[in-house]
Amino acid sequence: MLNHRWPDFFIVGAPRTGTTSLQNYFEEIPDIFMCPKESGYFSKLSPGPTISEENYFNSFKIASDKQLIGDATAIYLRDSETPKLIHGTNPDSKIIILLRDPIERAFSHYLMYLRDGYESDTFSNKLKDFISKKPTTGNFYNYIIMPSFYHESIIRYLNIFGEKNVRIWIYEEFSANTPKIVQEILDFLGVLGFMPKNVGKKYNEYGKPLGETSRSIVENTTIKNIAKRFLPKSKRTSLQKTVFNQKGQKPVLCENDIRILQDLFQDDVIKLKKLLNRNLNWTHFPEN
């Protein structure tokens, strides 16, 4: 094993809860050095390429001894092996978790897939197919349904790192009062006296799905191979969103889909409320 310093804190998700915005805010803070977003080193579920220990360390080797090193990878929350792997390298790691109304989180993830050209069917059709078959594999389960079950994932992190080193924030509160929540997170990390100037700017927001011309370009094998050769994944994604995706009227869920998802997530939300002993301010799951 290489004799290097491991990250001091981890933003482990959930996906579509503001982790990209938090990454961008922290990149503006001199006392923090962030690894590339979604590095995925501690998860076999990461959609990115598997990276070696050496490559992982190289991604933050220029961090100074005075800087905290952070790794923001949203898939870390749902991977049951990740907490143990992180703890094995740095048992004093600070764990930051953002949670969102599970229905809104799932739909937001679907819209991201739709925006980026990975999905074309309607959400209602995908949900109907899932409910009829209840598969435990496939993108709709792995990225849309499963990450919205929070309770077991939170239990794992609390059991391994303890309540002192695990803090949970709610996306709806983060979105409504970003500077306040960012300050709370910085206090948790022990970073004082600096508020990034870009706080309040939203990153990775909803965009209109790709049109046919844009989709044909994105899906063109020759173009993809050239882009992969000369551009890192983060640059390819940024270019696609800048050139092809435009803001538009965000779709809304139909009432029938909401009822189905409420039934699906209700038990998990009840367990989570009891575990955290707090109101969650989620529209689709009003307080009892």
CATH-defined superfamily of the domain at 9-116 and 147-205 and 265-276:
P-loop containing nucleotide triphosphate hydrolases
List the strand order in the largest sheet: 2-3-1-4-5
Q: Helix/strand-derived class?
A: alpha/beta
- Count up the helices: 13
Uncertain stretches of 5 or more adjacent residues: none
How large, in whole angstroms, is the Cα Rg? 19 Å
> So, CATH architecture of the domain at 9-116 and 147-205 and 265-276?
3-Layer(aba) Sandwich
Q: What series of H and E elements makes up the topology?
A: EHEHEHEHHHHEHHHHHH
CATH topology of the domain at 9-116 and 147-205 and 265-276: Rossmann fold
**Per the principal axes of the C-alpha atoms, what is the gross shape?**
globular
Distance, first to last CA? 51 Å
Number of strands: 5
The largest sheet is: 5 strands, parallel
Indicate the proportion of strand residues: 5-15%
Give the % helix.
40-55%
Mean pLDDT: 87
CATH class of the domain at 9-116 and 147-205 and 265-276: Alpha Beta
Structure characterization notes:
By secondary structure, the protein is α/β, with parallel strands linked by helices. The protein has 13 helices and five strands. Strands 2-3-1-4-5 form a five-stranded parallel β-sheet, sandwiched between helices. Strand 2, helix 2 and strand 3 form a beta-alpha-beta unit. The longest helix has 22 residues.
